[in-house]
Structure formats: C-alpha cells, structure tokens
Specification:
Layout (H helix, E strand, L loop, with lengths): L13 H11 L3 H8 L29 H6 L13 H4 L9 E6 L5 E4 H7 L3 E8 L4 E11 H8 L7 E6 L18 E5 H4 L5 E6 L2 E2 L9 E3 L12 E7 L6 H5 L23 E4 L6 E2 L7 H4 L13
Parallel strand pairs: 1-10, 4-11
Antiparallel strand pairs: 1-2, 3-4, 4-7, 5-6, 5-10, 7-8, 7-9, 11-12
Length: about 300
Amino acid sequence: MRKIKSSEITPEHLYLSRRRFLISAGALVASTMLFGACRPGSPETPDLQPPSPGTDELGDKITPYKDITHYNNFYEFSLQKEDVADLAKNFKTSPWTVTVGGLVRQPQTFDIDDLRRRFPAEERIYRLRCVEAWSMVIPWEGFPLAKLLEMVEPKAEAKYVRFESLYDPKQMPMRDIPFEWPYVEGLRLDEARHNLTLLATGIYGKSLLPQNGAPLRLVVPWKYGYKSIKSIVKIDLVAEMPLSFWVKQSAEEYGFYANINPEVPHPRWSQASERRIGEAKRRATLLFNSYDKEVTNLYQGMDLSNFF
Ligand code: MTE
C-alpha cells in the first residue's frame, strides 16, 4: 500500500484524491461497503434551539446543532465530513477513562463520570476555525484544562502537554488508511493552562455526540481546529515538543503552533478569509480568531510566520 502524499491529505481537497487512493489501493470493494449500500441510515438529530442570546460575544450567530453534528472531521471514522455521524453512531464512550501522567507528581487515571462530577460544566461560546478555511460558532460545555493539570501537579521539567485520542480499529473504520495513528496533539504548558483552553464534554447543553469527540475533547479557540483533539484517553506532561498527528503527516504544511493567522497562508491556499457554515459570503479571518487580546502575550518575541 503506497504512502499518502502530503498533497492528498488536506480534507477539502480530498474527495478526488480519496477516490484515486482507494482505487490504487485496490480497496474499492471495502469502500462500497463503507460508503455505499451497507451504510446505516442517518441518525435522527433533534432540532435544538441555540442557547440565549444565540450569538457569540462578537454578535455572530451560533451555528445550528444539525451542522455542528453533521459536518465533522474525525478521520478515524471517515475522510468524508458528512459520513462521520453515521459511522460513529455506535462508538462506545462509556465506560471511559483518561490517564494523566508523565512529568507530574500525582499521576492519575480518571473515570469520565468522576471528572464531570469534580468539574461542573461551564458554557463557552467559541468560534471554531478549521485549517481548511471553514468555521462555526459552537456553544461548548466543559471545564478549563488548567483545573485538571492542577490536580496532577506538573513538575518543573514539564514544558509541554501531549494528548492522545483513542484508537480502536475494531470501532473505527479508517484502519486501512495509512495515517500514523493514534491522533496525537500537543500544547505548550502555558497555552494548556490558559483560561480559554477547554476540555469539552457537551454542545448545546447536551453531552457530546461521538462525531464531535465524545466523551472528552480539547478546544483551543485561537488555533486551527486540528489542535482540538477528540475522544482523549491519555494526557502526558513532557519536556520536549510532542510530534503531533498532522506535523507527522506533512511538516511543511501543518505546524505545531497552528495559531490562526490570516497573514500566513497554507502552502496551497490563502488563510485570509473563511466560509462560515450557513453563510453565503466569505468573511475575513482574524488574527488568533479574534482572541488576540487574551493570547497575544503568549507569543511575545516570536516570529509568527516561522512558528506556524
Ligand atoms: N481529533 C481526532 N482524534 N481525529 C480527527 O480527525 N480532526 C480535527 C479535530 N480533532 C480530528 C480531531 C480537525 S481537522 C478539526 S477541524 C476538528 O476536530 C473538527 O471538530 P468538529 O468535527 O467537532 O467540528
């Protein structure tokens, strides 16, 4: 099976390249089963009302629940955003544990229900901007990652946080695609402790659905969406910068920092504007996704075009 070229792994450009890949890999029969006749019917999604006031702090409308839950990047299930909800609907998210360790004084394995009891959910309405240049406004529920980190007491040598998603080939159909699983992400420790950095457990007042990263996913609203790793099972405090999933696939195209920046184009497209799901006209992309007042100080003295 050939290795996927970096030019093929960018989602919005993937439809044709996925077909090429499937044909050349001789996997057409399997793909018909996954994407064709044997696909289960579309799960029912309630038509939920957005929480009041229905906008974020900039006055931008909250994205409909149906769009948030049916237009997903979760490659362990599918490269096709519209197929993830169906393919993930039987994903088992209970029981679930998250192991937090590495350079900490109090390593611990937490049960998800215990975590939810310990840290009552707060609502945070954030813009999510994908590296592919689409965006949504999502009313998350969750708790600051900083609270969990405090519990395990990071040692002085800890400089970064490394996150790992569950990878269970029995439940996740993308096992035949030669990405290097599991999905891994990382943050610098000060980014991880920032008050905006959330561990999300819900959307629209309901528990996360599998397609959105149930039962626990990261949300870092000033960074491209690929940093917001889903279905986390492991968190480690480490001394060196973790090698994250997309950097591993294509380091020229996807950086560790992934700070949203209209002035730093992706090598194959501009990042100056974005398509807000539900809107006809493109809108300008704003530095740090408009969270600049809160986060600019994290990057003092760094050349943002070099540390992309
Ligand atoms: N986490 C895992 N484990 N696998 C993935 O494929 N995709 C990322 C991120 N987290 C991804 C992931 C990308 S590229 C984006 S844009 C967001 O999840 C999408 O989140 P959403 O589907 O809830 O909108």
